[in-house]
Amino acid sequence: MTSETPAPSLAGFATAENAVPVQVIEAGELDDWLAAQPGRVAQWAKAAGFSARLGEVLLVPDADGGLDLVLAGYGEAKVRARGRFHLATVAAGLPEGIYRLDGLAAERRAEEALGWLLTGYAFDRYASQKRGQARLVAPEGVDAARIEAMAAGEALTRDLINTPAEDMGPAELEAACRDLAAAHGAAVEVTAGEELLAQNFPLIHTVGRAAEAAPRLIDMRWGSEGPLLCLVGKGVCFDTGGLNLKPGASMGLMKKDMGGAATVLGLAQMIMALGLPLRLRVLIPAVENAVAGNAFRPGDIYRSRKGLTVEINNTDAEGRLVLADALAYGAEDTPDLMVSMATLTGAARVAVGPDLAPYYTDDEGDAQALMAAAGRMADPVWRLPFHQPYEAMIEPGIADLDNAPKGGFAGSITAALFLRRFAGETRYMHFDIYGWSPSAAPARPKGGVGMGARALLGALPEMLGL
After folding, report:
1. Where along the sequence do coiled-coil regions lie (predicted)?
2. Same domain for 395 and 424
3. 188 with 218: CB under 8 angstroms?
4. For 371-425, how does the pLDDT look when each residue is reduced to its tens digit (9 = 90+)?
5. Any idea which residues carry the catalytic annotation?
6. CA-based angle 337:378:268, to the nearest 5?
């Protein structure tokens, strides 16, 4: 990023020199493991009351008082099933140094290694924050470069979401895109201000026209061969609700309303860093939904890029409007797969809470690939339906589409159906994400967080035949 938006500093894996072993022990295996250890280790563990419960840590000294060994409790499988990145808690509490993991099952190593790296993240642009200082040697059998790329992409997403709108408006989001593109040899084109009308992006212009910062469509392209993947991210850098003004309590987190854009940029970072054999296009409509004399109004009807007319029944349902023009534009390029990510509806949070990323697709193969990858990548997702009978709810009669159907039912589904109208016949997937951790969890401090990106990264080889 630019000097105004510093790049996230997240350390990768360490070299193996003088690494302190971290012995991972499940609760049911503790007695057998202690029986095979030197007497001093067994006595120390028993004297300390170490029970190998999940997240428990015991530092074992050597004869000179230095750190010889770390015992890390891994608990029981039924307890571990209630969370992920369990060793991140261990890593966060260790003294500065270099460590290696021993005794961890092969199928758990990639997840725990990623969680360990993510303990090194802290958003410290405005105040100093404590970062994890325990470096990890890449566990045997993991793809270290892939894990480092995922950690770096996640750090980018978090930094973008965490930055307040004063420093992350449409222009700054564009700058972040340009810096990411420059780092990976991608190209960026931007259509901004009144040029949006000249180039037929009327809904993006409509939503952003009341703000001091000009609305824009950011278009990044990378790669020259392979299937075309188009990622579309909602970039509403701040959402007041427009003339349907949000109450103060609902406006407090609206710096994160560009979480879809932040997430697709984090995913793009992963894809480009790993050199996946595909062509990538990223489209981000970047706007602020502000209040001014020229703000769009409830009752207005606008014609979209696709030609469909949209009646505005709530100016706080603006994300689907800017995405509509971007999706229509992306579909004109006939991508092999188009994916939108957006912090779109409160209904999605009511349905699945803050930790699951709900998604929509009509392709059963894509759904199966994504669900399988989500488990492997420790990135939970949940499928919701493009329920055809609800199509009538988004058809107001006076226009082709309604941006905010009355009644309050199925808000996430009706928003997804609205967006699908603009994707046309393109193979399409939509994520209605939250983009925020409301409380700290292992490897996830309170604040901005990526959702669905790693799951999608893991599914792309099957989805696109890579």
Report:
1. none
2. yes
3. yes
4. 999 999 999 999 999 999 999 999 999 999 999 999 889 999 999 999 999 999 9
5. 246, 320
6. 40
**428 & 319 share domain:** yes
Question: By CB neighbour count within 10 A (0-12 exposed, 13-18 middle, 19+ buried), where does 389 fall?
Answer: exposed
One-letter amino acid of 323: L
Q: Is residue 8 part of a domain?
A: no
* Domain range enclosing 88: 20-142
The rounded Cα 288 to chain-centroid distance in angstroms is 21
Shared domain check, 160 and 130? no
